[in-house]
Design a protein that fits this description.
five-stranded mixed β-sheet, homodimer, three-stranded parallel β-sheet, 8 helices, alpha/beta, elongated, 13 strands
């Protein structure tokens, strides 16, 4: 967890978030007003957080990973724009002097970086992050991105790879990638990276067991040069083509 | 900075890294053996770090951002593989019991997340990270990836966008992206994100001043839906198409 996020939490009065994520940081929330909500309550949660902040309360809205990667940062700004609020940049020094709504986005360690670090170094070269959730994005758009990323040999970091309401999209994605990459391309599933219940599986594109993947998983598919060695998944950047060791 | 990285540094005996990055964390290195090296010394640096670790010294190799994103994690594993070393996973509990070389990759906040957080939420939807450095990657490969990412409407996070030895590649990249996106597409430059000398510029693809970009910058180009509002750059995920506020 980032030190900056811990400090922001320490100074906050109110913390809002998805229940599962708030439970992970319960230790940091002991003296706060904690407002937990469920999945698909993102719009309400952000509106509530904005409401508190507008009333001058020091409010933290918690996302997992990085709030700017499929997290809540964008939705907060979307809502502020829709409501025509005046959103100022947070400035530690000047804040006391300027009344109004100050916003700061605190970056974190994205889920795919946590997952990659457990596997080795699969994201060492150009990569694309694609969410398979078709809740807000049409499947044709997702399909086009998968196709383009696979064709241009990007490493792929797949978010929201599978859920009960859309069990088949990961298999569709796998088939698209297989059009451009050999079946033996390294691939991996990481569930609950750096949390209780952490689990990982190194395999190949052909061997990827879609049934092992859930909503809390990240799937990483290597590029044409990615290798698996001694249980480590690595995408070389090309140093050893140029330099000898 | 991630708490896990701070803790690893605290317990380390030796820290190696690129001088500029070690200087940023000088406070954490006071009681360590510090071995700084220059740019283009990556292979020597990793070999030296591996050498110390093999001799049983608690060694930290420092990257900026996330060590697994254009950092040193992959090169360490490349070298270990080439030298046919036996690299075991670091295990806090079991380490004392198993002799040998134990490796742990500690994830961090990637530079593009730090940059994005200062701009607002430009990476809220599918994005591609592309390095423009043609030192280890042929320009044709980079060009193909830029083309594919631009065509499939990925947000683009451009690493190593420009250096003295290759001043023209960012302009070439901009021209490729302009084939697929309108000139008014939001774009941004962030230099030295979250460091002394931090500087950012919100602009458009047409207005992007390549001359302002250096090696320490990240350039972010929005997708077809990215907007700039009150000085914030945001890529909507689509919540407000579906839900009303």
């Amino acid at each position: 967890m980032a030190l900056e996020a811990i400090r922001a939490l320490e100074s906050a009065e109110i913390a809002l978030g998805y229940k599962t994520y708030l439970d992970l940081i319960a230790d940091l929330l002991r003296d706060k007003i904690v407002i937990a909500s469920g999945m698909r309550k993102e719009v309400e949660r952000c509106q509530e957080a904005i409401g508190y902040a507008l009333r001058g309360r020091n409010t933290v809205l918690v996302s997992s990973g990085d709030a700017g990667i499929y997290g809540m940062a964008g939705l907060v700004l979307d809502i502020c724009r829709k409501k025509q609020l005046n959103v100022m940049e947070w400035d530690d020094e000047g804040r006391g002097g300027t009344p109004g709504f100050h916003l700061r986005i605190i970056p974190g360690i994205p889920a795919f970086n946590a997952a990659a670090s457990l596997l080795g170094a699969p994201l060492m070269h150009d990569f694309a992050a694609v969410s398979l959730s078709d809740h807000l994005t049409p499947w044709q758009v997702i399909e086009k991105r998968l196709w383009a990323a696979a064709e241009a040999d990007f490493v792929l970091a797949i978010y929201n790879p599978r859920s009960r309401s859309r069990p088949d999209l990961l298999e569709k994605a796998r088939q698209i990638i297989l059009r451009h990459r050999p079946p033996e391309t390294p691939a991996a599933i990481v569930r609950q990276a750096m949390r209780e219940g952490q689990w990982k599986c190194l395999t190949t594109l052909a061997g990827l067991d879609v049934g092992e993947v859930d909503m809390q998983s990240v799937v990483i598919v290597g590029n044409l040069r990615t290798y698996i060695w001694q249980g480590w998944m690595v995408t070389p950047r090309g140093y050893l083509d140029k330099y000898s060791v």
